[in-house]
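Input (structure):
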């Protein structure tokens, strides 16, 4: 059933965007809403983002603005779930796709000036094309997997009020500038215009992290962070619940679901687990709260058996007392 739904979505994505050229950006995700509501949201989302010249292809709509087209559609799954798919082609396709995805999720992109609280800092987990950036409150950062970072160094605020930050790569010596979006859920690396997104949307009403980065971008970060060792329950949307036993040496063992095993680490309040089980492999990226007792983030299937597509799932971790 799931394969049939995915195949239908991909077919309609191709149909909806047949006239569009590169660059393109796509999104496929299950939402807890009915088909009619989904299609109504698709129409409203496109109109709110200024698209016009609509075409109704049955399961959704295609609209156009100068230099860009967008298709938003819906495939009914199992009540009350509908698969939402978005294809944007043209200028600034990634950012335009994310704004449509936000609207389909029921949220409106924040107006100018909304960046505050934890949304005013780089601290947390971010992704660019599936690869993680981790910015820790102690001023350290790293890009890439847990076993070996592709880049790492220190970060700090250049002008926090304006959402401007900088981070250096210890290996290359290069310092780059990051500009936060108004809602604090994306930043752009200049001058490459690389767009990076938070793993989980920030809360502007939550307390900001204790630090805005390293006071001296060349300094060694001070040790800090949540303890790793302990037992955690993992609640994964659409999959269920399991228990993870994490040891101080970084070993990790799951009980329930796939009974996976792997390695874990904590950077500041960012808990990461890389795991394997059967024909699957993936990771967890969980941003813990200030108590180090609960956290939210994502679970990803990065390697899968033949015929099963990689996926990501919203996840909540709770430490067992």
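Output (sequence):
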């Amino acid at each position: 059933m799931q394969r049939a739904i995915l195949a239908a979505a991909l077919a309609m994505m191709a149909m909806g965007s047949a006239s569009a050229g590169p660059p393109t950006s796509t999104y496929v995700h299950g939402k807890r809403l009915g088909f009619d509501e989904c299609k109504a949201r698709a129409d409203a989302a496109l109109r709110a983002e200024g698209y016009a010249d609509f075409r109704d292809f049955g399961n959704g709509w295609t609209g156009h603005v100068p230099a860009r087209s967008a298709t938003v559609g819906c495939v009914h799954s199992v009540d009350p779930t509908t698969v939402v798919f978005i294809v944007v082609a043209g200028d600034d396709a990634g950012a335009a796709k994310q704004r449509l995805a936000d609207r389909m999720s029921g949220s409106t992109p924040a107006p100018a000036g909304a960046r505050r609280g934890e949304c005013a800092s780089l601290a947390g987990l971010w992704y660019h094309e599936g690869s993680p950036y981790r910015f820790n409150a102690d001023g350290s950062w790293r890009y890439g997997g847990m076993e070996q970072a592709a880049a790492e160094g220190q970060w700090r605020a250049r002008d926090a009020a304006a959402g401007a930050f900088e981070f250096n790569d210890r290996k290359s010596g290069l310092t780059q500038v990051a500009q936060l979006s108004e809602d604090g859920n994306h930043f752009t690396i200049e001058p490459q215009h690389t767009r990076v997104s938070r793993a989980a949307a920030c809360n502007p009403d939550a307390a900001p992290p204790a630090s805005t980065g390293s006071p001296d971008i060349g300094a060694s970060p001070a040790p800090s962070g949540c303890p790793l060792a302990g037992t955690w329950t993992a609640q994964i949307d659409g999959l269920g619940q399991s228990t993870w036993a994490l040891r101080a040496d970084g070993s990790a063992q799951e009980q329930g679901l796939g009974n996976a095993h792997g390695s874990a680490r904590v950077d500041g309040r960012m808990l990461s687990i890389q795991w394997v089980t059967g024909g699957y492999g993936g990771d967890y990226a969980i941003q813990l709260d200030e108590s180090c007792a609960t956290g939210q983030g994502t679970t990803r299937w990065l390697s899968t058996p033949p015929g099963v597509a990689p996926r990501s799932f919203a996840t909540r971790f709770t430490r067992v007392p």
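Notes: The mean pLDDT is 79. Residues 2-104 form a domain with the Ribosomal Protein S8; Chain: A, domain 1 fold (CATH 3.30.1370.80).
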